[in-house]
Write the structure tokens for this entry.
Amino acid sequence: MYRSKAQIEKKLSQAKYILKEMQKFRDKIFVNNGVDPETGVHPLQVKISSFLALTRSVLQYAYKEAKEKKQITEYEKIVNKHPIIKIFKGLRDIDIHENIIGIYTTIYLKSKIPKMETHKNEKTESKTEKAKIIYQITRPLTITNELIAELRKKGQTELADAAQKGKPLYVPVEFEGETDLFVLCEKYISNLEELVSELIKKGIVT
């Protein structure tokens, strides 16, 4: 009989390692947006692809054992308790079939100008806080006439024109209001661990 627990635990450990490697990009600004000059690839994007593949394997192994034990209904019931899994499954599907997952970086920089007084005169001295950097993973939008009309209605004429010309549009992946790449990946790993734990308790994964 097929047993998946050992394989699942191995893939989870590998996914955690990749996430640790990804987190080296957290709160850092890289030259050329982090693109490797020799190969022209974005290392973080490559790591995300690996992360999606490893975490998807966790589900595939569990599904295979559930199917063999004729416990698919119970398996799906447990999986559906974690809606973030569906989001990452969709990203993996895009990564396999379309290869157009993107990385978008937003840098928030706040500056303060405190008032400094001296005996002879008065001057100001600028003080800049540490930049806050947000990495987001983006997915492509399906371009439809309805979408173009909606963009025009909202006054987003440049986007509407781009879409009409066949240019791809992307939106940040969001879950429960969160779009930070690292936060979402951490939450996904946590949910996968909870999922596996429950599958083991139910005897679906052994």
Remarks:
- The mean pLDDT is 82.
